[in-house]
Amino acid sequence: xxxxxxxxxxxxxxxxxxxxxxxxxxxxxxxxxxxxxxxxxxxxxxxxxxxxxxxxxxxxxxxxxxxxxxxxxxxxxxxxxxxxxxxxxxxxxxxxxxxxxx
Length: 102
Prior knowledge:
It is built from four helices and no strands.
């Protein structure tokens, strides 16, 4: 039984950014329009907390080939995106699970 193998070069298949990063990099702070961003007041900083993400643990996970190919096809960072998807599901359902334990 043979498997079809597709190889891609790093970055191939990614959409090219439409941002002119050279122009953005050349901007000076005073040239940037911050008018649509509200200024943070003292009460924000008084209540601000540093939140560190939980540590990560390496594991072996079996994922359907087509799902993995699609995730990889989205470009670099596919493992982080898989983690973000799982985290969103976890966040949406963790309270339901804890209620069943009571």
